[in-house]
Amino acid sequence: MKIYIDSANIDHIKEVHTLGFIDGVTTNPSLVAKEKNISFHDRLVEICELVDRPVSGEVISLEAEGMIEEGRKLNELHDQIVVKIPMTKAGLQAVSVLNREGIKTNVTLVFSATQALLAARAGATYVSPFIGRLDDIGVTGIDLIKEISVMFNEHEIATEIIAASIRHVEHVKLAALSGANIATIPYDIIMKSMNHPLTDRGIEKFLADWDTREA
Ligand code: E4P
Q: Which GO BP annotation is one of this protein's (predicted)?
């Protein structure tokens, strides 16, 4: 499973990029809205130039024509851009057109395996099932990753599964074990994922022992 960061914050992206395990970036309108004094398009280009990996930028239109137009403009910004499109009827129409033009898409806000199948068949490069938001309503989100993974394997569908709406470290492990190709993870959870209390205790003990050595 590859690791993406789910962020539009350039400082966070820069920091995690140095860690060597980041294979892409996803943004969404809520994340972009937190960023001040920079346009959406400029920020996407800035991220693309920094990471040189797939970077998802989301359309705002609700109509297919508008999504297609936005998608084409996003695609022209940089060759690493993936056009993120919500899982709606209009969204699928837009995915189908953009796919025929060779533009990569990430169908977002996927909450059922059937939605994932339709998005894949429409030509989506990626689908993003939101596991945390399912957990929030009392449905086990990770089960959706398993279902989509089984379905895509069974039918030899090449669309990649991005486990999204990751809320805690356990989600990262479960996404990998459940067949996600990618997990897109918020900065704070990436930071927590690196830690373990026994690692800290082990370092303390090694250093304490080191201090007792005879010169
Ligand atoms: C994925 O691409 C989305 O940006 C993201 O994972 C949404 O997560 P949230 O449910 O924490 O907002």
A: carbohydrate metabolic process
Can you list the alpha helix ranges (DSSP code H) found in the chain? Answer: 10-17, 29-33, 40-51, 64-77, 89-100, 113-122, 131-136, 141-154, 169-177, 187-193, 197-211
Burial bucket for residue 182 (CB in 10 Å: 0-12, 13-18, 19+): buried
Whether 84 is catalytic is yes
ipTM of the complex: 0.97
Catalytic residue among 36, 84, 146, 173: 84
Residues 74-99 have pLDDT tens digits of 999 999 999 999 999 999 999 999 99
d(CA 65, CA 94): 7
| All domains of the chain in start order, with CATH | 2-211 (3.20.20.70)
Contacts of 87 (CB under 8 A, 6+ apart): 107, 108, 109, 110, 111, 115, 119, 127
193 CB within 6 A, ligand 1 = no
pTM exceeds 0.80, yes or no: yes
